[in-house]
Design goal:
The structure is a homodimer.
Chain A (H helix, E strand, L loop, with lengths): L3 H30 L4 H13 L1 E3 H8 L3 H14 L2 E5 L7 E5 L1 H25 L2 H19 L5
Antiparallel strand pairs in A: 1-3, 2-3
Helix pairs in contact in A: 2-5, 3-4
The structure holds a DNA duplex.
DNA sequence: TATTGTTATACTCTATAACTATA
DNA sequence: TATAGTTATAGAGTATAACAATA
C-alpha cells in the first residue's frame, strides 16, 4: 500500500530525537517533587521488592558503576534507611536490606512522586492518552534495562 | 459492563510507579552515550530551532532556574558554541544564538544520541511496539512541559 | 518596584583511578 | 587471578541566596 514505511521511519526518527529531551526534563521536574533524592528512592524501592541485594546486583540494576552504588548505600546506611550484613557464605559480599525507617520513607516518597505524576496525567492527558502511555511504559523500561536478558 | 474502571486505575498507577525509575535510568544511559553534556545539547537544539533566545526563555523551556541557565550559557560561550548579544531594545536582555561551531557539535551529538536510541529500539522492540512508543512520545513531552499553555 | 541576569556557594549524582579483602 | 567492595577525587548539573543592572 504505497509508502507507509517512509512515514513510519520518520515517526521513529522523530521519536528518537524528541524522547531524550522530554524525559530529561521530566526527570528533572520529578526530582524537585520528591523529598528524598531519586537515587535513594530507587534503591529503596528495589530492596522492598527483592528483600536484600549485594552492591554489585544493585549497580547492575541501576546501570551505574559499583563505586557509585557504594556511595549511595553508604549514605542510606548513615540515614538508617538500610541495614548491611556480611554474607557468611562469601564474606566479600555485603547484603543490603531495607530498614524499618527506610520503609517508612519509601512509602511516603513514592506516594508523593507518583501522586504528582498522576495529577499531571489527569490534568494534561485524556483517558485514551493515559491508556496509551501506560501501554508504552513497559517499553521504556525495556529500553532502560537493555532488554529482558541484560 | 462490570468494572473496567478499576483495572484502568491499576494500569495508570502502575505506570506512575514504574515510569520515574525507567526514564531516570534511560536518561542516565543516554548521558553516557553522548560526547557532549546533555544540558548543552538541549540548549543548542532549542537555539537551532528558534534562532535566538533570552536566558529567561531558555530557563522556562528547560524547566530550570534562571541561575542554572546562566551557568550553562556561560560554559557554552566559553566553548565558542553560542554567541551572546545584548538586545538593543532592552539592554537587560542577552540574546543567545547558535555559533557555527555549536551547529557542528549539535549535528554530531544528535546523530550519536538518537542513533544509539534507534539501535536500542530496533533491537529491543517490535515494529508494533516502536509505533506505540512513537505515539506516546508527544505525551511525555506534554507531561514534561506541563501542558500546551505552560 | 519588577524584571533580567550574574556571582558565590553547596548539594546531588555519577564517573575514573587506585586500593583492600576475600575467593 | 578474579571478584566484591571501598576510598579518594573530580566533574556535570542544578539549587538557593545575595547582588547588580536596566526597565
Amino acid at each position: 500500500m504505497g509508502t507507509p514505511k517512509t512515514e513510519f521511519r520518520i515517526d521513529i526518527e522523530a521519536c528518537a530525537k524528541q524522547l531524550p529531551t522530554s524525559i530529561a526534563i521530566l526527570v528533572r521536574r520529578m526530582r524537585l517533587e520528591g523529598d528524598v533524592p531519586a537515587s535513594f528512592a530507587s534503591v529503596l524501592g528495589r530492596l522492598e521488592i527483592v528483600g536484600s541485594m549485594t552492591a554489585t546486583e544493585l549497580s547492575e540494576l541501576e546501570h551505574v558503576r559499583h563505586q557509585s552504588i557504594t556511595q549511595t548505600v553508604k549514605a542510606l546506611e548513615a540515614k538508617g534507611w538500610v541495614q548491611i550484613t556480611v554474607n557468611p557464605d562469601d564474606r566479600r559480599q555485603r547484603l543490603v536490606s531495607l530498614a524499618p525507617a527506610g520503609r517508612d520513607i519509601l512509602t511516603d516518597q513514592r506516594r508523593r512522586r507518583s501522586e504528582w505524576l498522576m495529577v499531571q496525567m489527569d490534568t494534561l492527558l485524556t483517558e485514551q492518552e493515559r491508556t496509551l502511555l501506560a501501554a508504552a511504559t513497559p517499553l521504556l523500561e525495556r529500553l532502560a534495562m537493555g532488554g529482558p536478558a541484560d
